[in-house]
């Protein structure tokens, strides 16, 4: 068939391939981090809107707050798997580790029922973009 045999690479060829590989991996990492974050958020979204009957969860909390105490509030982007779109929602986290979400802050302020809620256990509350970025970076360190 007339094929060529392969010979060992010299130092120049190894450096060239190593440089190309490093550059390719370096360019790929931001896409991978976004994909990892999207996959993580998709899993959280499925937990927030379960399709099956919800299972009981044991809460392990050191919080000694009243159940209706407001621990945290703010806006989050929530992924809708049916429409494949993101929607900005207003969330509150109560002292009993219940996460409730509303269409707007005004809706919550007027006492409307939440659009949905779930009891959280085993989650880490991240309250800033820098804290979230640090968490994602630490998760990607072992890759």
Automatic annotation (TrEMBL):
It comes from the Eukaryota. This is PH domain-containing protein. Pfam families: PH_Niban2. InterPro entries: Niban-like (IPR026088), PH-like_dom_sf (IPR011993).
């Amino acid at each position: 068939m007339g094929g060529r045999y392969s010979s060992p690479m010299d130092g120049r060829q190894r450096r060239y391939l190593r440089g190309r590989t490093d550059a390719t991996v370096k360019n790929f990492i931001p896409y991978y981090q976004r994909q990892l974050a999207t996959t993580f958020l998709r899993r959280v979204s499925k937990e927030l809107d379960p399709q099956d009957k919800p299972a009981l969860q044991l809460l392990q909390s050191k919080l000694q707050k009243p159940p209706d105490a407001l621990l945290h509030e703010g806006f989050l982007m929530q992924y809708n798997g049916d429409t494949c779109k993101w929607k900005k929602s207003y969330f509150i986290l109560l002292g009993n580790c219940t996460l409730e979400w509303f269409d707007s802050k005004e809706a919550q302020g007027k006492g409307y029922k939440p659009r949905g809620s779930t009891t959280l256990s085993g989650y880490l509350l991240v309250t800033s973009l820098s804290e979230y970025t640090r968490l994602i970076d630490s998760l990607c360190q072992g890759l």
